[in-house]
Write a structure and sequence with these properties.
Elements lengths: L5 E8 L6 H13 L6 E9 L5 H9 L4 E5 L4 H15 L7 E5 L4 E2 L4 H10 L4 E8 L9 H8 L16 E4 H7 L9 H11 L4 E11 L11 H6 L7
């Protein structure tokens, strides 16, 4: 008999009414590919949204998950509250619960959850994937090449990147590490660093890739949007 795994997908969102449908529909497609012994839940946390993100999320998620509104103004807090709610809704073993994190401006591949499940079954406690950009229309023509040349992928498929947009971790290990902290940026690097301190295996795999928006101004300070925008106007 196969172990009854559970996956909770947690997505923070702020003013994402335009891109949130793409994200949620891709996640719902990925959930449909999970085997029957794997249950799943979807938690969307809209944080200080001034647009229709909450309503848009409710219309798509309906009874397949839950959407909550908060006014924290902090991505780390939004992720943490999303996980807290996910664990309150799941009564099974934390050792058989996987937390899949992405962002509202992302599109995940249909195998995104299956791939993370395969890692979990082999004893991997956390996995960091990579991101690609959907459009560079807001940037100089040289930015696509500059971004891809600087975005390091090792020859063995590992990489040094950590993105909350593509971050999976087993629930018991997440709790042992102290979870997401109330950080407005770099909350993903912070958690990844603390996971390293433990004895559990964590991996970085470039084959696990999600698509993110190429917008020039991001929702969180000093996030990926700022890193991408820094490639503009660079000479030499």
């Amino acid at each position: 008999m196969k172990a009854p795994w559970h996956i909770a997908i947690v997505i923070p969102a702020r003013d994402e009414q335009d891109l949130l449908p793409r994200c949620l529909r891709s996640v719902q497609k990925a959930r449909l590919t999970l085997p029957s012994h794997v249950t799943s839940d979807l938690i969307v946390v809209t944080d200080q949204s001034t647009d229709e993100s909450f309503r848009v999320a409710q219309e798509i998620v309906q009874e397949s998950g839950i959407v909550i509104e908060i006014e924290a103004g902090c991505v780390g807090t939004a992720r943490a509250l999303g996980v807290q709610l996910a664990l309150e809704r799941y009564e099974g073993s934390r050792k058989l619960c996987w937390l899949a994190n992405t962002d509202a401006d992302c599109e995940v591949p249909v195998t995104w959850l299956q791939d993370q499940m395969e890692y979990a079954k082999t004893g991997v406690a956390a996995v960091a994937g990579i991101i690609d950009v959907d459009s560079f229309i807001d940037h100089d023509s040289s930015v696509p090449d500059r971004f891809r040349l600087s975005y390091l992928i090792h020859s063995d498929g590992t990489h040094p990147h950590v993105h909350g947009a593509n971050f999976g971790v087993r629930a018991d290990v997440y709790l042992q590490a102290g979870g997401w902290q109330d950080l407005s940026s770099a909350e993903d690097h912070d958690l990844w660093r603390r996971l390293k301190i433990g004895i559990h295996q964590r991996i970085s795999d470039a084959s696990l890739c999600v698509l993110t928006s190429g917008r020039r101004i991001g929702r969180a300070p000093l996030g990926f949007a700022d890193a991408l925008a820094a490639h503009n106007g660079v000479t030499g």
